[in-house]
Design a protein that fits this description.
two-stranded parallel sheet; 7 helices; 4 strands; alpha/beta; 47% helix
Length: 178
C-alpha cells in the first residue's frame, strides 16, 4: 500500500488529474464489489484470477436501463490479465546461456508471482542435457531471502497460502517422480 500511495502521489504531481486516478485500499471482495457494481464506473483494469475476472464481468454487465438512462456507460470496458501458463520452446540452435538467463529472469523474478512468469519449458532432446546442466547450476546460485538485501535474488511469496500451494506442488511432483 505504501508503494502504491507513493506512485499515485507522484502521478498526481506529474499532472494526472485526481479525478482520473484514485487509490482505494481494501479487500477486493468488499471494495472491488462496491466499485465494479457502481454505475459511475465506466471500465475496470484487473489483474488476478479468472474466477474474480468473471465476477467483475457479471457485475459490470448487470447495469440496468435505469442506470444507463442516468449516465452509466452502456458497455463498460473490462481489461483482465488472468495469467496463464507461459511457456518457452527451446531447440538445439538456441544459445544455452541466453536461454538460461531468460528462464531465470522469467521464472524467478518476483518469486515467480508475475502473470508473465515462465511456467513450462519445452526443450528439444538434442539440447536437453546441456540446458538442464546449466540451468540447474544457475538455479543453485540463486540466493533466497530478505528482499531488502541486495544479495537476495528471490524474495518471499505473497502469503502463507501461496507458500503452502508451492510446497504441496513440489511434494506432489517429487513423489510422482516428475
Amino acid at each position: 500500500p505504501l508503494v502504491a500511495a507513493k506512485a499515485v502521489a507522484l502521478l498526481h504531481a506529474a499532472g494526472i488529474p485526481r479525478n482520473a486516478l484514485q487509490l482505494l485500499l481494501g479487500a477486493g471482495a468488499t471494495v472491488g464489489q462496491q466499485l465494479t457494481s457502481s454505475p459511475s464506473v465506466s471500465g475496470v483494469c484487473f489483474t488476478g484470477s479468472t474466477a474474480t475476472s468473471r465476477l467483475i464481468e457479471r457485475s459490470l454487465a448487470s447495469r440496468t436501463q435505469s442506470d444507463i438512462d442516468n449516465g452509466a456507460h452502456e458497455n463498460p470496458l473490462l481489461m483482465a490479465e488472468t495469467g496463464g501458463i507461459n511457456a518457452m520452446i527451446v531447440d538445439s540452435s538456441a544459445l544455452t546461456e541466453q536461454v538460461v538467463r531468460d528462464c531465470i529472469m522469467s521464472a524467478f523474478q518476483s518469486a515467480g508471482q508475475r502473470c508473465s512468469a515462465l511456467r513450462v519449458l519445452y526443450v528439444q532432446k538434442e539440447a536437453e542435457q546441456r540446458l538442464i546442466t546449466m540451468l540447474t547450476g544457475a538455479m543453485d546460485c540463486l540466493s533466497m531471502g530478505n528482499p531488502w538485501q541486495l544479495s537476495t535474488d528471490v524474495g518471499p511469496v505473497i502469503d502463507e497460502t501461496a507458500y503452502n500451494n508451492i510446497s504441496n506442488y513440489i511434494k506432489h511432483h517429487t513423489s510422482a517422480g516428475s
